[in-house]
Amino acid sequence: PKGTMAFTGKYEFEGDENYDAFVQKIGLPSDKAEMGRNYKIVTEVVQNGNDFTWTQHLPGGHTTTNTFTVGKEADMETMGGKKFKAIVKMEDGKLVADFPNYHHTAEICGGKLVEISTSSGVVYKRTSKKIA
User: Fold this and answer.
1) How far apart are CA 90 and CA 94, in angstroms?
2) pLDDT tens across 29-73, in order?
3) What was the pLDDT predicted at 1?
4) Which of 9, 27, 48, 93 is most buried, by CB atoms within 10 Å?
5) CA of 97: how far to CAs of 55, 59, 70, 123, in Å?
6) Which residue segments constitute the domains of the chain, with CATH numbers given?
7) Measured between alpha carbons, how far is 100 from 28 in angstroms, rounded to an integer?
């Protein structure tokens, strides 16, 4: 079936658009914003049917892991460390979730992980290339 195991892999940050405007809009503290800038964040995804484990490896050995099942409420954590509850949906092969102050989608496009976050009209796009 379409979309099965499509996300599984390890992806390294390749490029982004609108980072500064976006982190400002969501109120990310400047030290966290600085940490995320131009750092090659590695995103590791394990997909087992509708169950996902989504881990981001950040500078200095920090990791953020979110485990969720499509269509069910899950406890999540933002890059900035805020805890919240969200229901991740699957729409046209994209994962879609509402974070506390932005709307997030993730999809695999030509072997790359493309993530788009939108907050009050500011669209932040991050592309990561598959490394494993």
Assistant:
1) 5
2) 888 888 777 678 899 999 999 999 999 998 788 899 999 999 999
3) 42
4) 9
5) 16, 25, 10, 15
6) 9-130 (2.40.128.20)
7) 12
